[in-house]
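Q: Hi! First time asking for a complex rather than a single chain. Here are the components, and I think there are six in total. Is that enough to go on?
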Amino acid sequence: MTRPDGRKPEQLRPVRLTREWSSHPEGSVLVEFGDTRVLCTASVTEGVPRWRRGSGQGWVTAEYAMLPRATTSRNDRESVKGRIGGRTHEISRLIGRSLRACIDLGALGENSVVLDCDVLQADGGTRTAAITGAYVALADAVSWLSNRQRLRKAPSVVLHRSVAAVSVGVVEGEPRLDLCYAEDVAADVDMNVVCTSNGDFVEVQGTGEASVFSRSELDAMLELAVAGCAELSEAQRVVLT
Amino acid sequence: MTRPDGRKPEQLRPVRLTREWSSHPEGSVLVEFGDTRVLCTASVTEGVPRWRRGSGQGWVTAEYAMLPRATTSRNDRESVKGRIGGRTHEISRLIGRSLRACIDLGALGENSVVLDCDVLQADGGTRTAAITGAYVALADAVSWLSNRQRLRKAPSVVLHRSVAAVSVGVVEGEPRLDLCYAEDVAADVDMNVVCTSNGDFVEVQGTGEASVFSRSELDAMLELAVAGCAELSEAQRVVLT
Amino acid sequence: MTRPDGRKPEQLRPVRLTREWSSHPEGSVLVEFGDTRVLCTASVTEGVPRWRRGSGQGWVTAEYAMLPRATTSRNDRESVKGRIGGRTHEISRLIGRSLRACIDLGALGENSVVLDCDVLQADGGTRTAAITGAYVALADAVSWLSNRQRLRKAPSVVLHRSVAAVSVGVVEGEPRLDLCYAEDVAADVDMNVVCTSNGDFVEVQGTGEASVFSRSELDAMLELAVAGCAELSEAQRVVLT
Amino acid sequence: MTRPDGRKPEQLRPVRLTREWSSHPEGSVLVEFGDTRVLCTASVTEGVPRWRRGSGQGWVTAEYAMLPRATTSRNDRESVKGRIGGRTHEISRLIGRSLRACIDLGALGENSVVLDCDVLQADGGTRTAAITGAYVALADAVSWLSNRQRLRKAPSVVLHRSVAAVSVGVVEGEPRLDLCYAEDVAADVDMNVVCTSNGDFVEVQGTGEASVFSRSELDAMLELAVAGCAELSEAQRVVLT
Amino acid sequence: MTRPDGRKPEQLRPVRLTREWSSHPEGSVLVEFGDTRVLCTASVTEGVPRWRRGSGQGWVTAEYAMLPRATTSRNDRESVKGRIGGRTHEISRLIGRSLRACIDLGALGENSVVLDCDVLQADGGTRTAAITGAYVALADAVSWLSNRQRLRKAPSVVLHRSVAAVSVGVVEGEPRLDLCYAEDVAADVDMNVVCTSNGDFVEVQGTGEASVFSRSELDAMLELAVAGCAELSEAQRVVLT
Amino acid sequence: MTRPDGRKPEQLRPVRLTREWSSHPEGSVLVEFGDTRVLCTASVTEGVPRWRRGSGQGWVTAEYAMLPRATTSRNDRESVKGRIGGRTHEISRLIGRSLRACIDLGALGENSVVLDCDVLQADGGTRTAAITGAYVALADAVSWLSNRQRLRKAPSVVLHRSVAAVSVGVVEGEPRLDLCYAEDVAADVDMNVVCTSNGDFVEVQGTGEASVFSRSELDAMLELAVAGCAELSEAQRVVLT
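A: Yes, that's all I need. Here is the structure of the assembled complex.
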């Protein structure tokens, strides 16, 4: 029983985090988990949405999308269909919640950050790559604000935690870390886990779809995920230093 | 430290499952978890969506919605806004996946069942009530098909598992089962768990949003949820007998 | 020649008006005309739409919708289709106009009331049941405002008339009151009449579609409708006392 | 008490029906009721909508719209807004029903006719002018089909009735025929009546909005409307001869 | 080699510009290029779009549309489809840019003019007819503003140039001016040219689609177009005097 | 008078064409004109749109889009807005027409190619870069089809011309080739020219917007554009060899 790319069950794919990939955004990171390639940009604007004005609090939100041919066969554009699909909505909301878990919105002040995560190439794990890359883009945007004296507190107070995310699943009865696409479609159980650098959980989403899973399978997957997130946190730390 | 309605941490709200609440659908269940009230109907149609034709397999899908004044303040209708929000999409997909986990789509044959879950009154836990009620409506629809000789196998083979769902959270540092709305908004962590009657997991979705949670908190919540789902499974069994 | 449910031509179906059916809205009435079941809620908000601000006048509007399986076969949700159909628009506008005919918008002050009429089960006459129930929900919302000293005048001045509505048609050559669905589809002529408790008309909408109708048929239908509305007005009065 | 244009209460505005106003459509009529100017075109296509195929029956439908500056101030285009308003829906449906009342859809065979009624200039009564003009355009389209041997029966059998429509209202306490815009906004009651050339009713739609109306007012309006429709039927007959 | 209507290659179709075709708009021109018939109205409103407020500058924009049966076969309404097509967008933008080239937006002050160009009948060249007619409607709207003392400068300063437009193409190897529909579909190259009365260019849009074109063909088309626009400018001048 | 990046008036920015930038599509090219960076992918599908079936002819179409933060400030996603803007429509149509000019759709057979041009970073000239890159992606897709014996003729017959495109404008009175963003916003005249490798024109689109341009300015721009396209054609040839 070997993985398609010969990895060990507990092994991540090669991870690359390229900062300043594009020149306009306040934060811009190309994140790669193997062949999965996501461009994460952080856009800062002064002010907050109407419902939040006068609160003294900032806002962080995310939008996830795929280029039409990021996948093996082409998907119609959601702009052409005139509506955003459920999967896109779901992932955008997950990324937004995850990133808000690591920032002190009061210390951010009435500034908004939009994290755009556009999948340029998909090979499984796009949402977890997006969260991992978006954290680095957010860190750059926070530094950008700090350099312009637009924060009330130190960047390390504003961004008081780091978050990283990884997928994990049970494939052919074996718990495996960081599924590629071929494994993802073959998995009985699929789970996405978002952790802080301390190993606390931000989000845990496990689904059996056709199948179900036992408590011991759940425990095995959580263990793999926590270790994988720790590696990703370290990669984030290194690239941001 | 007491709960708003005086329950113990591990106690469900009163659960009511009223079958045949409306007369047209093939299955129709009003489910109540305390003041949360969801009308779950199962609509059977012959045939399946285009992408599934000729597969010999059936299809089960779900749509979740709220009446505009199911909540304390009125929400604009999604039909009027012209688009379905991310939360609605997310919950509809969760209900659909959960119910597909308990049915043998091959044994269903090329029949489709749509599970409509309309929240008439909301007091927390609407998605878990919806899953719990939709299972009963689906069981009635499967019987309806069986009575008309439109199934290839016995109803107990077609519907080979039961599913039930409950919310759980950490409120004021205490893990609690089946949160009402007041607890939901105060929770540091919020989790929705879908289980089979055997205690296996179908879905586990935990989120910290502003906060994070430790492995021991996760374990405490899972334990409460499994026990709660077992009670709900029993209630489903009783009402279907 | 007998009616499907054995009624006399001039006889209403059993009418039930259940106040406070749900707990959140300022007015909440479940209205039943036989098997037709509509939940009418009144939602009060301070202020009025932009185009009316500063006028000192309030606003009352209505939205009608059907649950997807309120009918014998399932209808796609308008939220999923992304647009509201002509029939829904037409009925929402009719309900809004009818209710505005019974309220003094100046005496209401700059408050808005939205009347949501959601058909839980349909067996003909849903729009007339909706108007009849919405009047009671509106009366409760006016009392709610009065109890909070938010009205400029007495509730009986604000709500200076009552309105009720009923359908009437010519079926198999016979004028009949309050058509059920089976009669509705068989009718040559179909008419919806909205009256005040004084027997004045608020709306008269008669249509032949495939057929046409003479002046004497029109007169016979109007007579039945006025008598039916008088009964409904009395039922409203009783339940509001 | 005089009308803005000096007419007597029972007097129509000058009516003009110009056939073949444009060259492409199978029927094309510019109808004018005073300053109200509506272009009615009839477009014939072979075949019927999917839900009607194989029935041997034809289909007639209508679409009503206003140019953005047909009115005293400009209205945004519904194409730009991305949705059709309730009023447009309501009127399109009324025109369609009215025209279907005069045609034998079986004798039409599986042909479709779309009646487009575009208001080029509005001064009250646009929907009644549209019905009156659309009838003439439909008659021309039926002749066009007959000339090409595409009808099963004689044109006079296919189009077995004529329909015409007029508005009527109570203005300053006086029942008046064919209201211009200035009268329409001042009316306590407003009614649209569609009649056949025999004086039977196809549609009767009366509304009080802010006000209500008595049976005697209703009778007075119906009388004016029937006489007005008779004049319009005669004008249609003359222009089609 | 003759043209379908016997014209010489360098000959325009009969051009008619009818001012005040409708009574409500501040400018209203029916423009005819042969059988192509476009109603151009200019609607003035005080104030400018939000993004332009406080600039002291006015705004001119245009919307182009076709009646569904302006063409030989019926096109579905864009309002019914719920979206505006690419061709409509493209032409609306072209008309807007062209008209803004002839007006001094600073001298217009914070007033807006919307130019609605609705094609009542199409026989090729609808966009160039629309530009030519819209200029006359705009001139009337500027006079209307001037008569009400709402301009900062003289009308001739506000509208400091005139613009006219014509199509030109290569059909059967021959460069031709002002293509009718039959020529348009047969053309290898199709070009729309917008000129000022001085013979300067405002827009040049040439497209080969299936074919390509040489520099000498381009030059021949430009020459025809400049001469054609000069004739149209003269027609505008005459009708505005 | 110098250009922002020190180029001569007739000088292109550095051009890079990177083939096989992503792994899934049949053709995939990252094109860079200086800091403008567009990912062009070609997606092949068997069969053609419904309206073209049975014609024996293939189809080529294009979709252009920008990532939200390709630009200096963030633009809302068209998928979120629910509609595609006029500019996007216009450019998509231009790219599609341009690429269809270089392919023999009959020789392509009933295959479809969609060219997706997604702007990852924008610094002026995105549409011309997109056309230039899309040609190379299309060439790769044609080779892909040829390698699988799915073409009726040799690739060089199917793709019988090459196309390239460049922008040109008059800035501060000087005609310049390949405008960057800073020049684009300062230009009096802006022109996009699409040429074949033979120097024939496929599209010429010049616009003055606020300004106008003379024949001699037009000639100067055309000359620059033809020379620029020749250089780009050569770059395409080199990278495809």
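A: Chain D has a mean pLDDT of 96. Let me know if you'd like any chain examined more closely.
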